[in-house]
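ESCALATION

Customer reports they have been waiting on this structure for their group meeting. Please prioritize. Original submission:
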Amino acid sequence: MSRNNYNYFGETKTHYKLYKCGKNWAVMGISLFSLGLGMLVTGQTVSADVTATSTSSSAVRTDAISASSSSAAKAETTSASSSSAVKAETTSASSSSAVKAETTSASSSSAVKAETTSASSSSAVEAETTSASSSSAVKAKTTSASSSSAAKAETAAITTAGVANADSQTSAEVTADSTSTSQVVTNNSNNQNNTAQPAGNSTSTTQSTNQANSQISNQGQLNQFATGFVNRAISEGANVDPNNFTQAQIDALNKLEKYSTTKKNTDTTQFTYYQFQQTADKLAEVDPQYAIPYFKADQIQNLPAATAKDGQTGKVANMDIWDSWPVQDPTTGEIANWNGKQLVIAMMGTPNANSNHLYLLYNDYGGDNFAGWKNAGDIFAGYRGDKKTGLEIFGDQEWSGSAYPLDDGSIQLFYTHSKYETKTINHQNHQRIATANLKMKLNADGTISIASVDNDHTLFKGKDNASANGTHYQTFDQWAHNVTMFDGHKEDFGGADNFAMRDPHIVKDSQGNRYLVFEASTGDDDYQSEDQIYDLRNYGGNAKFQLESLFNLINNDYSVKDKVTGKMIKIGRDMRVRASQANAAIGIIKLGGTENNPTVAEVYDPIISAVMVSDEIERPDIVKIGDTYYLFAASRLNRGTNDAAWRKANDKVGDNVVTLGWYSKDLTKGFKPLNGNGVVLTSTVPANWRTATYSYYAVPTRSTDPRFKNTVLITAYMTNRNRVADYRNKDGKAVLDPDFIQENNGEHNSTWAPSFLLRVNPDGTTRVLPYVTNQGVWDFNNATKLNTNIMTAKADEAYLPWEKGVPFDNGSILGSGQDWVDSMPSDPYTPTAPTAPTAPTAPTAPTAPTAPTAPTAPTAPTAPTAPTAPTAPTAPTAPMAPTAPTAPTAPTAPTAPTAPTAPTAPTAPTAPTAPTAPTAPTAPINPSQPTTPTKPVQAGQAAATNFVDQRLPQTGETDQQHMTLSGLLLLAMSSLLGLFGMTKRQRKE
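Update from on-call: job pushed to the front of the queue and completed.
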């Protein structure tokens, strides 16, 4: 009985435990069910009109922008990645599907027919595409930079691996109507530049350069510097074929780098080959800006004062007069007033007697009477044979220079002492710069004589150190040595090569420092040699001009046509030799010592160099206007090395003389060419005409007439020496007929020309003005008369009746050794236009318009200033009294209603927040059952409905938000029930 009872209670207990265990499992099940239900609710899929970054695997046709897709699509889409067939207006970065779309694609592995820009593709493409790289066949309109496959496209390609058929920009490889930078590459082994040529009907800016590179590369002999130079020349239009370069041309080009990059003195201004060419061109054009005026030949007179005793022969003769200069203030440049006289020193001598000496001439100060000039005689007569100077009567000459007055009344003369050398026949005219102090005497009859010549000595010979050669300037000993030329022959420099150490011009700066500017030749620092031909800095201009000029200089067969005979004359070798010898310069030294016995204090670098370009730039003189120094110098272009240029000018005009000019604010350096090319004056008539001029010398003007502001007076001698103008044509030959000369008013000797004005503008330009004076005017002042009768606009009046057509030898006039040439017809050289500007002087009448100053009467209207009385209306400011209404600010008392803030106590109703407990009425969720259509969403059937952000009418929440909240609540309740059951069981146990 007891056992039965025991079993009964044990069994009952066991069942009770099983019940409790089952109950726990039921709670756990409910919890899991709630958890699953919550997860199911929160995981519901929603479909709407959206922009998707990831789409389902179903077929989609939407107006969408897709970044990734694995389905077939027909849409206007921008796609970054796709594995489906797409026919869309799409921009695609990556695709593995067939695409027929207006698409911009960066990567594709599918067939594409689209307007596409592609960076990478493995599909077939037929498109207007931009491509850089490709491994596929492309039929497109393409511009390609790199390609490894066949393509037909107008496209720019970057990369592609596919075949395209589309109006697109793709990366496919191209063979098309395109511009390519790498399809065809010409490799120049010298400069290692890979430059493309175009494929198809394309445009290339480097085609000619590529051709040149290819040809030069074929030669394989040009260095990198030469290659670049030739390429530049071709790009600038040089008509050369590098494939046909001779070995001599290649050798010359390869020397350019060595000689064009060596250090040069930057203080020296180079007169370049290009500037020489421009000067010759301006001369041939008879440009009125530079052209010397025409003068009436029948008005020109011999200088009466030139009929005097020749200091060399001791006989009275009608002497020639040529290089001349005034005694002038060395600071201002104005003509000096020496006891009421103006003084001029001139080279004079008997024609055809090799007599070249200095004479002192004088006239009334400020006067312009040509007949008023008197001759004080040969300056150095009676002083030759002096042991101190070593001067000889017949072996020594004095050439041009300058002079200025000293405080003691003496004249300090600087001149060229030229000693005839007899050691070798060609080493003559040993020039050096000399100086002497002239003691002057004013006689009772008003005449002037020279009392004595003191301290006459050589001042400078070019040597500035202890070495045998001159560093800055060439010495006579340097010049005298024979030099081995390019072809191995010994060149005797007694011919074309000039030695120059002459024409000193005195200048004082504002501090009183004295300088001499002179003609010279460059010394060791930049010496004459064939190497100068290979220095591109000597050429100027662009690469085209430099290359063509270089080839002309080194071409021994270079020829020009003779004007008279019609035969071709070889000038190549002559040009090459003279270019190797040319080294003209304008030098400068600073003086020390006393003014009447100066010494050399300092030697400077040349201020102008014409190395390789010209061997003669002479008679420098400086005029200071304002704070700027203007340097002028005369030159004969046939002393230059560009034969073709000066011969063209000589053939056109009949002469080739010019004046060159530069300007600077620093007397010792930094000179710039006037007019940009250096040309200032050009000849206008043949050298054998009566009115031919040379040896131009500029002096400042003293006139206050505004017409002549910023002008200098240009002086010169007229009619070339040795009675050139007296030759006439007899049976085709130029002859001197004494009877004929007497029948035509006697000899026509070199004389002083009429002077004329040159305007010098502050901007560095110049212009010849149509104002001419009498012959022999040096001081242009307010009393100077303009001679309108001596100037003409007709070239036919510029020669004597027998001169036109007379053949003449320029060699006899200029020492150039030219063949006889016919002087030129005059008709083409009539600058009538320049004379017209004289009419503009009439515009001075417009000064009458000063009458308009009468309108100053309108200043009476200042009376209207009386209206300032209306300032009384400031009284209306009294209305400020209305500011009293500010009293209404008292209504600020209504601020007392702030007491209603006490209603803040109603904040106690926050207790109603306890109604949050009604959240337990989640059962009202049942009223939300109308939202259960979310389950159809699970069925995936909502693709055609629009529930985008639809709000529930009960709470205003979205359907999705409510379902998520329900799931969370169920989960929480299940968890609580389970926890409750487990806790209760533990208690009972």
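Sent to customer with the following note: The chain has a mean pLDDT of 71.
Escalation resolved.
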